[in-house]
Write a structure and sequence with these properties.
alpha/beta, Rossmann fold, 2 domains, two-stranded parallel ribbon, 9 strands, O-fucosyltransferase family protein, glycosyltransferase activity, transferase, membrane
Length: about 350
Amino acid sequence: MRRDLCDGIGIARLLNATMVLPKFEVAAYWNESSDFADVFDVDYFIERMKGFVEVVKELPEDIALREPFGVDCSKRKGQFDYVETVLPSLLKHRYISITPAMSQRRDRYSLQAKASFCRGCYEALRLSKVLEAKASNLLKAIPNPFVSLHLRFEPDMVAYSQCIYPALSPSSINAIELARGDRKPFTGEAARVWRNRGKCPLTPSETAFVLQALGFPTSTSIYLASGDGILEIEGFTSIYRNVYTKSSLLSGKDFDRMHGNTKAALDYYISINSDAYIATFFGNMDKMVVAMRALKGLYKTLILSRRAFANFTAEGLEGEELAKALREAHREDFVMGRGSALPDCFCEYKL
C-alpha cells in the first residue's frame, strides 16, 4: 500500500495531476476497513507535498458523483511511458484511478517527478498522531536492545509460494490447502528446482536454526513483526523465548479494535526504529523498511537467504556443518549490514 502510494505521488507529478486523498480497499480477509486518516497524518501529508504535488481531501462537486475511469498499468512490461499512455485518459475523463506498473523504472522519471516521489515516500508520509503515540509506547515497552523479525509463514503466503512442506502438522497442511485455491504446488523435479532457487519461505523452526547459526543467543529480545496466524510458530518460540508481539504488548480491547493496516503500521514503525531488523522474505514491507533504515543510518539489517538454506540442506548438510555453511553465506551481510535503499530511488532532497 505504501509502495503504491509512493508510486502514485510520482505519477501525479509526471502527469501534472492533482492527487485525491486515497481510499484504501476494503479487504474482508484481512479484517480491513481502515481509512487513510486511520494510518497517516493527513494534514501533514498535504502540507509537506505543497510545491511538489497538489493533494486534496475531496473531489470537486462537478465530478464527485462520478466513478473514476480505471487505468490498469500493472501488466505492462518493459519500457512504459505514463505521459504517452495515461495522460490522454486523464485529459479525456478528468478523473482517473490508476494501478501502477510494477515494471516501471523510476530512474526514467523527470527530475521533478523523482523529487516528488522521494518527498512523498520519505518525508511526507508519517503515522497519524494517535497511531504514532501507540507505536512509540509499544517501542518503549520492548526491552533494549532488540531485534525486529519479519517472519512470514501464514497459510496464504505459503500457498502462494507453491511450495510443499510434508513435515508440517496435519492442521497446518490443511490450512495451507484451504488457502491454495487454483494455485497448485510444484511437485517432483519442478519442486526441487523451485526450492533451490530460494522461492520457499523459511518455516519458524528453520528461521530459529538460522538465527542460532548466526550466533543470536536464545535469550535475544525479539519483536515479531508479523501478521496473525503464523503457522508452526511454536517451532520458533520454543527456542527463542523472549518474543514480543503486538497482541502481547497491547491490551486485548485495544488490539481487537485494530485492523490490518494499523497493525502493519505498528510493525513498520517498530522495524524502522529497532536495533536490528531481520527478514525471512524480501517482500514489499521489507524493501520499504530497509530503505527507511538506510535513510536513518541504521545498517544492522539482514535478509535471511532462503536459497542458501535450500541448497545446503539439499546437499545433505545438517547440524554444525549446516550452521557453519549458513554463517559463511551470510557473513558479508551480517558483518557489513544491509544499507541499500530501494534500488531505483535517488532522493535529492535539495531539489
